[in-house]
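Marked as duplicate of an earlier ticket. Keeping the data here for the record.
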Amino acid sequence: MVKKIEKDYSRFRSIVRGKIKKELRKYITRGELIGKVGRNLVSIPIPQIQIPHFRNGNNPGGGVGQGPGDPGDPVDGGEPGAQPGAGDMPGEHLVEVDVSLDELAKILGEELALPNIKPKGSRTIQADKEKYTGIARSGPESLRHFKRTYREALKRSIAMGIYDAENPVVTPVRDDKRYRSWKVKEIPQNNAVIVYMMDVSGSMGDEQKEIVRIEAFWIDTWLRSQYKRIECRYIVHDAVAREVDQHTFYHVKESGGTKISSALQLCREIVERDFNPVEWNIYPFHFSDGDNWGSEDTRRCIELLENNIFPVSNIFCYGQVKSAYGSGQFKKDLDEHFGREDGRIITSEIRDREGIYDSIREFLGKGK
């Protein structure tokens, strides 16, 4: 019975997985999915799945629900047909299914054909791991190897001729005791930091910020499946940049001019202060509508990227969100200066929510 249940459950999860893959583009573009994230789980509404259910059989002997009343009487005491009008369209039956973030990342990787990330160079932290590798004659009593100790005591008793088969009591002495020994082995532990930067000037509206929020969620989901440890830092900027927490990053509403170099400068300071590039894989993501304060600041941005951001980053990603008030010039300037084939930078144009899907593939498709 248990094996049959496990088989049925496995088949059900396979059906759910297929439904998610089929509708992945829809899930990616909908922001409400992010609000359903629990502890390492996402609650996803899946349509048109028949879930197992009990079917009532005949019960001529009666049962619960007996008592006064006629067929059709409402159980809550209200009047039948009290609701105004009757619908003539079938409803969409949704089933809420919990899916782990790891499974969601696998589905994302399969559907978008994302390669596994290869950490850049030696950017790993060496973590100590203790491994028991042998037997020693000395050590703490908590690590005494009882079988080996008994065997040594037995060998000594037999060799000395004091072993009594009729009364096989063996008492270890100090020289018989054996202990587990270990050595500390350094193993590489990959770690990564994502620095999210977002333009919150007056030309970036709520819709543009929501697009950034959705795309950041899916980027997080994929990168967390590739690294043991992920840290995120958040920067918002108009003409001045400041570091904020995650909640502020997603909900801040500001206005003013735009000076992109302020965000890149702050990103540089955070990395230099907190994240040694020898030990961390670094992913800066910047989102804007493409407006910037003059060509002079754009030149400053290019200097910061070439001299400070590129050398320490696995890849720098710039996402340009289309806005009715943004010129979109900054992406053109980056593409013109660095070219589309420069392996240090990826630029992506996100025209609307439907563009999130392709933008994620552009950013993560190189496996850096």
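See parent ticket for discussion. Strands lie at 41-47, 94-100, 124-136, 179-199, 229-237, 241-244, 281-288, 316-321, 345-350.
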